[in-house]
C-alpha cells in the first residue's frame, strides 16, 4: 500500500513539474535582471537659467524666493542663537557641523555658497534639487538622500544663515 501511494505521489509530482513553465510563450516573457539593466533609462532633466552655473558657486543664488540679501559685517548674536536653536530642532538629524552625515557638513558653508543659495536650499529644496547644478551634485554626493522641506519661513532661514556665519567665524 505504501509503495502505491509513493508511486502515485511521484507520478503527480512529475506531471506537475512538466506542466510548469515549459511553453515557448513562458520563455519569451521571462524577465531576467541582466535584461532589465541593459536598457538605459531615459530621464528628462529640467534646467533653469536662474541657477547661474557660471562656475563660481558664490555667484549662484539658487532657485527660490530669496533673490538678494545684504548681510551686515557684524553678526547678529541674537539671530545666530535663534538660528542655532532652529538648526538643532529641524536640521541636525541629517546635518552635522564638522562632518558629512546624511547630508553634507555645514562648517564653511558661508565661504562656499552665497547666502541666497543657502536660504533657497532651506526654503525650496525640491526645486533646487531638480534645477540647481550644485544641489544636484550634493544630492549625488549624499547617496541620493533628498533634503526634506521643513516648512521654515524666510526669517527662520535667515537666522540659520546667521548661525552658520557665526560658526564659520569661530573656526
UniProtKB/TrEMBL annotation:
<protein>
    <submittedName>
        <fullName>Cytochrome c</fullName>
    </submittedName>
</protein>
<dbReference type="GO" id="GO:0046872">
    <property type="term" value="F:metal ion binding"/>
</dbReference>
<feature type="region of interest" description="Disordered">
    <location>
        <begin position="28"/>
        <end position="63"/>
    </location>
</feature>
<feature type="compositionally biased region" description="Basic and acidic residues">
    <location>
        <begin position="28"/>
        <end position="47"/>
    </location>
</feature>
<dbReference type="InterPro" id="IPR009056">
    <property type="entry name" value="Cyt_c-like_dom"/>
</dbReference>
<feature type="signal peptide">
    <location>
        <begin position="1"/>
        <end position="18"/>
    </location>
</feature>
<keyword id="KW-0479">Metal-binding</keyword>
<keyword id="KW-0408">Iron</keyword>
<dbReference type="InterPro" id="IPR036909">
    <property type="entry name" value="Cyt_c-like_dom_sf"/>
</dbReference>
<keyword id="KW-0349">Heme</keyword>
<dbReference type="GO" id="GO:0020037">
    <property type="term" value="F:heme binding"/>
</dbReference>
<feature type="domain" description="Cytochrome c">
    <location>
        <begin position="78"/>
        <end position="168"/>
    </location>
</feature>
<dbReference type="GO" id="GO:0009055">
    <property type="term" value="F:electron transfer activity"/>
</dbReference>
<keyword id="KW-0732">Signal</keyword>
<dbReference type="Pfam" id="PF00034">
    <property type="entry name" value="Cytochrom_C"/>
</dbReference>
